[in-house]
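[09:14] KT: can someone run the structure on this one? pasting the chain below
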Amino acid sequence: MIELFSSTAQSSYSCNWSNNLEAGLRLEIVGWRRQRTLAKPVELHGRGLLYGKPVCLRLLPAEPNTGRLFVRTDLGRNTIIPAVAETVTATERRTILGLPPAQVELVEHVLAALAGLMIDNCRIELTGPEPPGWDGSVKPLVQALKETAFVAQDAELPIVAVRTPVDIRDRIGRLVLLPATATELRLDYFLDYGTWSPIPPQRFSCRLTPQEFVNTIAASRTFLLLEEVQTLRQQGVGLHTGPERLLVFSAKGVVGNRLRWANEPARHKTLDLIGDLALVGCPLAGHIVAYRSGHRLNIQLARQLRAAVHALGWVQQLSASKQAA
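[09:31] RB: done, structure tokens below
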């Protein structure tokens, strides 16, 4: 989403994992499930939320153990950016993968839709630097994906969980991942921007299953404050995006739009969290409790989990060379 609170993450692909491993984050495999991909390509069109340019999004089936790959076809069909925590280069207001010019921005929405529907291997082709924004949610994408079949593949993914609680904090937020008692992932998001915020305190809880993602999360829209709009437009962001394409909150409430749920912002923050944690590369089990967490904390956790997956001895091998053809 376009966040109210955020900061810049690392500025290159290279990551020093030693500090994370020294912190003692250890995983265990609590189950396995078969990998899935699409039965056929899915194509959608629209304008990006950030820059307002028309863009075509094509989702293509991919071989087992490929993972999710973004491809900037406007820069050449071999411009491939793996959707893993190692390729995150910024977290200011959205998650950005890659280095200029081979970058893709606002990836968390598409990744949340794929993770929510358990689509593990997918080639995500874009004709621009960001996916279509639609109405600020992933409802159109999820509807299109539901119309195609999914294929179970002859390979498995481990379902991983932490052995001991992980607690990550910054000045305004907190993100806790608790060990698993089953093979499912539960999420609780607490949103509270303070007494004077036009967005009231709220909470959203869910179990991450395809049905629950479709019914309770996919239609939640990105949001921001009215006073932020001019600042963003001065930065060249959102020049073609009006209140009909996202939720803009003023002191009098939502501008030019209506909430789909009273806690829609908390639902969308949960969507962002799911998309960011998809960068771990394998499904998680356990219980996530988030308080005002944004992309910075989400990606910090994703990087630690990704490092722990390496330490566990299971790393999904990306078949980028095969998928480039």
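[09:33] KT: thanks! The domain at 18-312 is CATH 3.30.1700.10 (lpxc deacetylase, domain 1).
[09:34] RB: yep, looked fine to me
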